[in-house]
Each structure stands twice: as structure tokens, then as C-alpha cells.
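Mods, move this if it's the wrong board.
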Amino acid sequence: MSVLTQEQLRLYEEQGYLLVSGLIPPEVAEQGEAALWKALGAKPDDPATWAGLPFSGGYSAPELTACFTPEFRAAAAQLAQEDVATFRPPERVFTINVFPQEGEWQPHGPHIDHAIKEHGHKTFPRPFRVASIVYLNDILPHGAGTMVWPGSHRKIEALGKSDPARYEMMWVLNSGIAQLDIGEPVEILGQRGDVLFYHYLCAHSGSKNVTARPRLALATKW
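Not the wrong board. C-alpha cells:
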């Protein structure tokens, strides 16, 4: 199943990330958001119930796993250039939620995933094929949108290949990002049901949420 156009594939190859709409039907994404609020034990219209809620967690509600539609998985397979049969929906979904915070908006510093020293992930071959973030509600400007650095995956890959022995481990390569000029980040303002895919070497980060609306999202890697 091919769900992405050649232009979308080109953009992903060039930029290292791709925001895609239409992979998750509106009603499925809406039911997923409702299920997450229920799992959190909170109400979307009552900020008093948001206090102390976790930033991340794992949930197995069927409404959340239903977000991993065949079209979603087919798109992930296309970007990874792998067999779609190996892209199975997760049995347990990992969430990353950012609730409103006080102070000025700011993005966090760039990083690549799987770069925790204790986890021991190597740079080559890739430790995962493609990463994805599913947005369960609309993201406002400065509302904890994902920050991405366009084209950074190519510069980071070049750094890794410049000294394979030195940058054998992902955590070492991650620490080397500071020496690169990766340009300025872009704030991804996903809407409910949109999926952000990114390359395993794409520099990205979270950002502060200074709006009145929480940001609810699912994060999965294959």
C-alpha cells in the first residue's frame, strides 16, 4: 500500500521529517483523545484536574491503539523503505503530554533519540527505522509544538561517518550536535489526527507550553 506521494517522500528525504494529515480519521483521533483523558483521570475543560498529571505514560486503551491505522503504518513503511508487514500496531501506547506552564515560551535544545548512554545504542546501522508523533488535539503556536531542525539529519549523519570509531554510539554523536551549524528550528503545529514522522538522526526537541490548552500526543518508533 502506497499512501504517500513522491513529493512527500522527497521532502522527508530532504528535510528529515514530514507532517502528514489524513492517516487517522477524525472520529478515531477524537475517540483517542477522549480515551486518554479518561486514562489520565482528568477533564479537558477543567484545569483543576490537570495538576500533577504525568508528562508521559503507557496505556493500552483500544481507542488509542486504533490510531495506528493501516494507512499510518503504510506511510511509516514507505518512509523507512521497509516491508509494511513489519510495522505492527503497538499493544501499549506511549504518550507525551505537555500541560500549560508559566513563564516565557522557549524550545528545548536539539537532540536525537536513542542517545541515552546506559541504553547502549549504536549509530550504524540505525537503532530504529522511523519515529512518529500523533497529535490528539490541535496545537497552538507556543503550545508545546515539536521543534525540528530541517536537514539536520544529513549533517549529523555526515558527522557520524566522519569518524565511525569515535561516533560509534548514539550518545556520543548526540553530544557532537553542539559543534554543528544545524540552522534554526521549525515549530510543528500539528492538528488533531496529524502524524509527524522524523528520521532517526533528525535533530528535534520539545518546547514549553504557554497556552491555556494541553498538548496530547502519542509517540512511537518502529
